[in-house]
Amino acid sequence: MHSNMISDSPGEQTGLARAEAGLSVLAEAMQRAVEQLGSVTPPAQLRALLIVDEAGAINLTKLARMLGASTSATSKLCDRLVAAGLLARQQAAASRREITLRSTESGQRVAQWVRDQRRAALDRTLASLSPEGRQDLARGLAELARRV
């Protein structure tokens, strides 16, 4: 069974394969950019930190859903981020039982550093494209971000 997004036509399959290859290049460049943190902050923790920092405040259940992880695994991951001083747990204003996660000042600095490193890597990688290619890619990725 095929979804509406994938066709059996050879041209569309070739286009999909090319898009996947290009995406792999971008993902690898961005991953290398944050490897400077090494084992200090593992990738799963960085991902959680970036989600929390972007949200401003988020509850554990929503974070777990966004990570595609169980609530208990997400809670343990957050325990490590709290211990590292990157996240803080606070009682939610709307409910005494709900806990809200926020990034600390240190967490915000790390999140911004990661974003800066990824953007710099993306800029270096995209520099090899023609101006039209960069525009087309930016337009396509912006549309994807809006729809997802």
Task: Give a short synopsis of this structure.
This protein has a three-stranded antiparallel sheet. It has six helices and three strands; from the N terminus they run ααβααββαα. By secondary structure, the chain is mainly alpha-helical.
Shape: elongated
Q: Which segments are poorly predicted (pLDDT under 50) over 5 or more consecutive residues?
A: none
Structural class: mainly alpha
Put simply, the count of helices is 6
Helix content: 55-70%
For the biggest sheet, the summary is: 3 strands, antiparallel
Global Rg: 19 Å
Instruction: Please indicate the percent range of residues in DSSP E strands (runs of 2 or more).
Output: 5-15%
Distance from N terminus to C terminus (CA atoms, Å) equals 23 Å
The strand order across the widest sheet is 1-3-2
Order of helices and strands: HHEHHEEHH
> How many beta-strand elements?
3
The average pLDDT is: 84
Structural notes for this entry:
The chain has helices at residues 10-34, 43-55, 60-67, 71-83, 105-126, 131-147, and strands at residues 58-59, 87-91, 99-103. It has 148 residues and is mostly helical. A hairpin with a 7-residue loop joins strand 2 (87-91) and strand 3 (99-103). The chain is elongated. The relative contact order is 0.11.
